[in-house]
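Lab notebook page, bench 4
Experiment: in silico fold of construct C2
Operator: M.H.
Input chain length: 253 residues
Purpose: comparison with the prior construct
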Amino acid sequence: MRFSGKVAVVTGAGSGIGRATAIRLLDEGATVVAVDLKHVEPWPGRPEGRLHLVDLDVADPDAGRRLEAYLREEFQRVDVLANVAGILHIAPFLKVTRADWDRVVAVNLTGVFFLSQAAARVMVESGTPGRIVNVSSVHAVVSEPNAAPYTATKGGLEAMTRTMASELAPHGVTVNCVRPGATRTKMSEPIYTPEIVRSLQAKIPLREIAPPEWVASAICYLASEEARYTTGACLDVDGGYAMDGSLPGTVYS
């Protein structure tokens, strides 16, 4: 029950890593504000008194103001913000349109910035030593062909995390990120063809594609008091993908 008495906001909570994170926080005692575009899946067996469903597009220019007002009115505080919402657009670099680019940046980077700003204002003004956890991707450091807007936003997110951590440290607020590798979610499932899965299993040293719960565990660690002396860090949760320089199927002699 690491989060008993805490208020936690999770974006992208309708599915995937966001939903797994929200459930983990609920199970460990938090009151959770589950943010998503539209909540369509039920939350069986979850405590209604501690689960607040909020329909919100993180790319909406007014999203930060709306979240800040909601937190002030309902709780007068917030302890945790997990920025999990994200989108992936697959297209060759030469064919990416301005609309494609703008939408990915709006969700993956601009939305994170202004929702973090909103939550941090509430944390600072209430004197809460809060935790902000951003979700990056292994593709912030390893190229992903046909996903230039996505990789750009994840690289930018990691740089932004470090700057936010520096500025908020005097207020006792930590800002960190997790860097997931291959993870089965609604967003990734369409591209995980049998051929892609075989290639990933050959490339990833631990030979597994993660369920969302494995990434949620890392998010909740960084959101907890156990990580109180960690800020501006990025935690790899990728089965060894980014660090491995070996050639699958070959051995140096």
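Observations: Residues 7-237 form a domain with the Rossmann fold fold (CATH 3.40.50.720). The helical segments are 16-27, 63-74, 98-126, 148-168, 194-203, 212-223.
Next step: discuss at group meeting.
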